[in-house]
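Researcher: Quick test of sequence recovery. Tokens follow.
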């Protein structure tokens, strides 16, 4: 009896001991599981904070000390920029000259006119080009008429030399012709006259202008010859 009782008691202790180990094992699993969840949530929070910090630093990075250098200042230039922003880096804008007439930039057109404008008119290509375009007048036509009226292809007339009159314009101050204080004033007044009294009425070519501008029926032919010279020069 004593042996059986002792054996039963021993087996009971063994079973109780195994149950205790099982409960402890399950408890540890639950603790580890909960700890894992909390760790994941914390990691997510850390990741979120890291992304926010990076975004904030990126914003600060873009705004700090940005400098822009503009190349060229001609108002007839078209600006195209390809910006790559870096902290403390100078950004250069690429300036592409604008095409204004006959596939040329304003400077190219002025140089082309100057190759045909002779004597006192030489060097006035930029004024002819820019002011003609501003007034809606063909720059070739304006320069060609001046060459026809002044004879500057060989030797400029006294009307140009004494009165700065580049278009044979009627007026006062120089006999029955207009007088202008400077050659630039005379060129602007001449282009204004073409715009106001001819282009405004749809007379935009030498042939259209001939009956109103000159008594010589060959005037338009002479002007067009000058236009062809200018184009091919």
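Model:
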């Amino acid at each position: 009896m004593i042996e059986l009782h002792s054996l039963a008691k021993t087996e009971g202790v063994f079973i109780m001991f195994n149950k205790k180990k099982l409960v402890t094992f399950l408890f540890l699993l639950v603790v580890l599981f909960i700890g894992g969840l909390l760790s994941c949530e914390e990691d997510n929070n850390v990741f979120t904070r890291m992304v926010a910090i990076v975004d904030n630093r990126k914003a600060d990075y873009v705004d700090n000390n940005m400098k822009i250098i503009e190349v060229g200042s001609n108002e007839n230039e078209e600006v195209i920029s390809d910006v790559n922003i870096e902290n403390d880096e100078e950004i250069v804008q690429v300036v592409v000259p604008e095409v204004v007439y006959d596939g040329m930039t304003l400077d190219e057109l002025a140089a082309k006119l100057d190759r045909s404008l002779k004597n006192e008119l030489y060097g006035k290509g930029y004024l002819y080009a820019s002011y003609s375009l501003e007034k809606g007048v063909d720059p070739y036509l304006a320069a060609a008429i001046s060459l026809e009226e002044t004879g500057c292809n060989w030797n400029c007339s006294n009307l140009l030399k004494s009165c700065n009159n580049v278009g044979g314009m009627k007026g006062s101050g120089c006999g029955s012709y207009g007088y202008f204080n400077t050659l630039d004033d005379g060129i602007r007044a001449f282009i204004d006259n073409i715009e106001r009294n001819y282009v405004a009425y749809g007379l935009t070519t030498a042939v259209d202008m001939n009956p109103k501008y000159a008594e010589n029926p060959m005037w338009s032919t002479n002007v067009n010859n000058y236009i062809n010279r200018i184009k091919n020069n």
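The chain has three domains: 1-63, 67-97, 100-232.
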